[in-house]
Amino acid sequence: MSTAFESIFSGLSEGSVVPYLGPGALDGVIDPATGKTIPADSDSLILAMNNGQPMAPKLMFEFPRAAMNVELKRGRSTLNRFLDTTYRDTQWSNSALHGWLAQQKLPCIVDANRDTQLQKQYAATPHTLVVGVARISSKEYRFRLFHYDGASYSAVEQEAVDASLPILFKPLGTPLPESNYIASDADFVDYITELMGGFAIPSFVKRMRQNKRYLLLGLRLNRDTDRMVFSDIIFGADKPAGWALIPHPTDKEKRFLGRLNIEIVNADVADFLTAAQSLDGSLAAA
Asked: Which of 15, 140, 186, 220 is 20 to 30 A from 103 (CA-CA)?
């Protein structure tokens, strides 16, 4: 096992390292009924939203842009219905990565996907769910909080959150317990603006994240949207700020992560799982 992986697993065990999951964390997840893989990255989401057909090149650039086009032409309900059908109503196979992470009893996981894999793995574990929301004029904050008691979710105010429970932070939304998504360009403009202003992260998360390190799993950082959400969520990180598992990183990724003082590990989610399974085997043998 590499030195980087040894440090990563040590930090995860101590609770000082927070996983940050991107689309690649869902690699290998399929619909058992059809064999289709779960749409998670930008291209696969656009194709799924458009009945398997590519959209215009300018819309294929990024899912939020394509989602904005659908919202403007066919209404927000169409976009929400697509995401609900994809992530709430389709029964996907279990993710090995999410299962392993749930077994570690980590204090916090940031999941920048809109699926329910992580919530499914925590179905027997009481936790606090933080869900990103946007374009809501009734309140100043851009999040909703839910307490999970081991059986069901109930809304909770941040002053009443049990700080001893694990935190599942879903900045881009989830369909459960209610549908809330950051998806279109307009969503991201509002959400990132409030994220930068401090109104999209609860106070207890702000306290928890101080001097933490992060483990970026399954997210490429070639798009401004992903970089802005990531850098604002990890604000206050330790120095060095952690690791990013990115195979064959681009120069743009290297520059961006260098500014954040995050070490790039030339590996992917499959490499991480192999190392984790090797570690588990070593501990079992001991």
From this structure: 220
Q: Which amino acid is at 274?
A: T
- pLDDT tens digits, one per residue of 44-59: 999 999 999 999 999 9
| Structural domain of 164 | 3-32+90-285
Short-list 33, 209, 31, 154, CA closest to 44? 31
Inter-residue contact 22 to 113 (CB < 8 Å) = yes
Backbone angles phi, psi at 25, to 5 degrees: -65, -20
196 and 276 co-located in one domain? yes
Tens digit of pLDDT for each residue in 193-229?
Answer: 999 999 999 999 999 999 999 999 999 999 999 999 9
Rounded to 5°, angle at Cα 172 from 141 and 267:
135
> Is residue 82 located within the same domain as residue 104?
no
Nearest to 128 by CA among 96, 91, 156, 101: 156
| Secondary structure (3-state) at 181 | strand
